[in-house]
Amino acid sequence: MTMDPAIGDVFGELVRDAYAVRTGIGPRPLAGGRVPRPVIEIIERDDGLINGAPADPYLAEPAEWQPHDVRALRLCRGAVLDIGCGAGRTAIELQRRGMAVTGLDTSPGAIHVARERGLRDTVVATVDEYARTTTRYDTFLLLGNNLGLLEGAERAPTFLAALAALARPGARIVAQGTDPYGTTDPVHVAYHRRNRERGRLGGQLRLRLRYRLLATEWFDYLNCSVDELEKLLEGTPWRLKSVDSQDRPYYLAVMELTS
Description:
Helix content: 25-40%
CATH superfamily of the domain at 64-203 and 218-257: Vaccinia Virus protein VP39
CATH topology of the domain at 64-203 and 218-257: Rossmann fold
Radius of gyration: 18 Å
Strand order of the largest sheet: 8-7-6-9-10-15-14
CATH class of the domain at 64-203 and 218-257: Alpha Beta
Number of strands: 15
Distance between the termini: 57 Å
Shape: globular
Oligomer: single chain
Number of helices: 8
């Protein structure tokens, strides 16, 4: 008999275990009861594609970061909201640099790890929920490919409106995205074509995450070109200010509040 996975805090569970493996703090997942095993995040796409990625980079120190992440921190100013902060990788470094930073995530487990690692100001909420606060920010960080939180053409205006509600005049969004269209992999090319036939953006992913006995609900996550990003910004109070494409297919986009 097969059983469907339970719905739960997948990200919190895997980050907790990755933290234990990296630091020796807390119960560690063991292979054969003896050897710490790597913690792998399983990513399941709605066309049946399964990928796995190590969770340890969520805990990486700046010396281990990708170059675009290092450059992104130079673009931060004022009070920062790190959206999808996870285990606090970026927010903790900003805090070390003396900046006012809040880490926001929907995963209680990830926020617990971020606090254990020393992040002082944290919030467990969605962007929409947090938009009701009176706190205002100068910079919104969407790193770790978290431009994907725009989800698609239907969701993007609501997400961007929530950020505008949290913004001080002249605020900026610093986001890392991925242009998916340079691939020649027939599996991905077919997926892009299937999306377009369904009226979706080519790189609009439908995913769920798996770890051990848990799964998330299915959700949308967006990989898009810079041209597609500009179109998503139309009709919103945000405008594309600059794009850093040094690490293609990854890019850093800076968007600024215009009103």
